[in-house]
Amino acid sequence: MEQNQTYHYHVMRRAIAAIDAAGDTPLALADLAAEMNMSPAHFQRLFSTWVGVSPKRYQQYLALGHAKTLLRDRFTTLETAHAVGLSGSGRLHDLFVRWEAMSPGDYARDGADLTIYWGWFESHFGPALVMGTDRGICGLAFAAEAGAEPAMADLKSRWPKAGFVEDVSMLRPWAMSALGMTGETKLHMIGAPFQLKVWEALLSIPSGHVTTYSEIAQSIGNPKAVRAVGTAVGRNPVSWLIPCHRALRKSGALGGYHWGLPVKRAMLAWESARADAG
After folding, report:
1. Can you give the pLDDT of all 278 residues of the chain as single tens digits?
2. Strand partners, 5
3. Closest Cα to residue 118, out of 64, 81, 162?
4. Nearest to residue 201, comparing CAs of 98, 77, 112, 94?
5. Would you call 153 exposed, middle or buried from its count of C-beta atoms within 10 A (0-12, 13-18, 19+)?
6. Taking the alpha carbons of 248, 26, 278, 120 in that order, is the dihedral positive or negative?
7. Fewest 10 Å CB contacts: which of 129, 134, 187, 216?
């Protein structure tokens, strides 16, 4: 993972604000570059390197109406979301992910007798807090919008009786695979049974595609539980890898995102651009 990825995200965050301020009028390359205090050539290179498309094209992915376009053109049904089961494995992005779930009894003990390792890493979407057990990553938070201390407090509160140990070297191979989208990453999914069903459904959404909260409720056999599904999506502790950013409202509204809506928009735009460029 390149060390300037966090810098790229902060530029992206400023670009989102500039594009929103312009309303329905697309910004010319020179104007958007000026908003970023960059030359047009540097701005063009930065974006093309970061996401693989030009700034002009990228504006379309960052537009407020892009979520509606995704629902129209890249909506994913989840009829087969449970075909493999939690003990199986699934494809996610260009990354091969293996996951296993903590037993309900272990989860009910709030992480007692569990050691969770943590460390900070650079990512495409700002500073990333990675947490993991000896079985795999169990937590992934983005702090660019939320802040480092709140992100740490939030993840620790998920398993209040666990022991937490800083160990960047132990987590680095998984973190580099997860954030760099290469190789294999293991997930240790720690949640209540209903949450695990929702998170498993999220794992079946391909990169560059989206679904709705109601579709997730339907896929897990509980179509009336849309509100509960939304809560479970919001409680997903492994952002990005369990792609809660790909869940939208039927109206095309983004819905919430635990680590900040600008991060969600940047994730959806980044994935869409890469899907089209690829």
Report:
1. 445 667 778 888 888 888 888 877 888 989 989 988 999 999 888 878 777 778 888 888 877 788 888 888 888 877 544 443 433 334 443 345 778 888 777 788 888 989 999 999 998 898 999 999 999 999 999 999 889 999 999 999 999 999 999 999 999 999 998 887 677 788 999 999 999 999 988 988 888 889 999 999 998 999 999 999 999 999 999 999 999 999 998 887 787 789 998 899 889 988 888 887 76
2. none
3. 162
4. 77
5. exposed
6. negative
7. 134
Structure tokens at 183: 């190789």
| Type of residue at 192 | A
Backbone angles phi, psi at 202, to 5 degrees: -60, -35
What is the Cα–Cα distance from 197 to 221, expressed in whole angstroms?
10
Whether 133 and 99 have beta carbons less than 8 Å apart is answered as no
Distances, alpha carbon 17 to alpha carbons 27, 69, 148, 160, in Å: 12, 20, 22, 36
137 forms beta bridges with: 132, 187
Active site residues: 244
The residues near 68 (Cβ < 8 Å, ≥ 6 apart) are 252
DSSP annotation of 99 = E
Using alpha carbons, list the distances in angstroms from residue 153 to 17, 47, 143, 232.
28, 33, 11, 19
Q: How far apart are CA 100 and CA 212, in angstroms?
A: 24
Q: How far is CA 150 from CA 129, 201, 258, in A?
A: 11, 27, 11
